[in-house]
Amino acid sequence: MWPFARQLFLSSCLSRSRLYSSATQAKSSLPPTVAIVGSGPASFYVAQQLLKLHPSMQVDLLERLPVPFGLVRYGVAPDHPDVKNVITGFTKIARDPRLAFFGNVSVGTDVRLRHLLDAYTAVVLAYGASRAKRLGIPGEDSLDNVLSAR
Fold it and tell me: In CATH terms, is domain 3-18+29-125 a member of 3.40.50.720?
């Protein structure tokens, strides 16, 4: 992660944490803050629903890569018209001033999950697989045309 981006992200987390810990109101009366780990399709759909749910909701997307959209950007047929429409929809969600994107953030390395749990009302883990996972079923390695989604 770039030093400036890390500093900005951690400052944001700490200020939210201080705001929460110094508040005299009950947690439920504060505007909710949600960290979503990952920035692929699942993350954007969750963010969209959360932002609809509460007018003062603040959502932060944390992504290991420098850019959002996950496999929609890099995956199957990124130049297909339907995929471009999805990216347009996600971009509209990302322009909401209540949503912030923090790229180059690796949860577990740059910031601990415990810190996120302390700083946010809720944390959603919506990251994709970084490598294929074996299923442990007979013939898994010898079946023709059966491939991992990763």
Answer: yes
